[in-house]
Write a structure and sequence with these properties.
- It contains ten helices and no strands.
- Helices cover 66% and strands 0% of the residues.
- By secondary structure, it is an all-alpha fold.
- Helix 3 packs antiparallel against helix 4 (75-99), helix 4 (75-99) packs parallel to helix 8 and helix 6 runs antiparallel to helix 8.
- It has a single domain (39-225), classed as Up-down Bundle (Methane Monooxygenase Hydroxylase, Chain G, domain 1), CATH 1.20.58.
- The chain starts with 16 loop residues before the first helix and ends in a 6-residue tail after the last helix.
Length: 242
Amino acid sequence: MTEDLRTPILPGTAASDYERYLRTDELLSLQKPPEEMLHPDELTFQVTHQACELLMKGAAWELDRARRCILEGDDRDAARLLRRANKMLDHPLRMLALLETITPYEYHVIRAGLGHGSGLDSPGFLALLHIAPRLGEAFFERVSKAGLTVEELYRRHKEFFELHEVAEELIDYDEHIQLFRYAHLKLAQRIIGGEVVGTMGTPVEVLKQRMEFPLYRALWNVRNEITSRVNAENATGHGGVY
């Protein structure tokens, strides 16, 4: 007798192994039932935030794996994992646009059920911010051990291709964080206004101020250094070979 491949074999009570492995019964029960919703748009509000939290959790996990690879000198795998994390972060950015389909008055109906809840308390985003300095520390230590400055790493990128790829993925990560902050600011301005106080008592203006702090300033500043160097060499007629 051949095995019935449709019969679930994993532990659980769901009808299929797909549902048991992903625990969809639990996952899909984490939203308010219709009778408890303050507004029908609340399901969109909730699932969008929950999906973002899952993706940011996944990204933070991959970023920490990348950090360990950098410490071990495995630049190729570090770049691969950073690239994966950045692709994960593409989706929360796009998903914030879903929340812009909720009108201001509809949002304020939903807001009544949020208590002091605020996007600033997002565990997923806080995890991304928590791993950032440790990831940067590992990278810049790796650059130093290679006997390089950041400018030299970029000038000699063909020689240090994999480490250069790590640097570029890190700046992609930094850019994702800045874009997410910008999107969050514009969402707040669009829904509740730019000159008001949010659910946690934080002025919306604070969201704008937080965009002024990149994660890896040295990776942004090196662009200025490269341009200044090239301009100076071109001005004297002694262009360097990059």
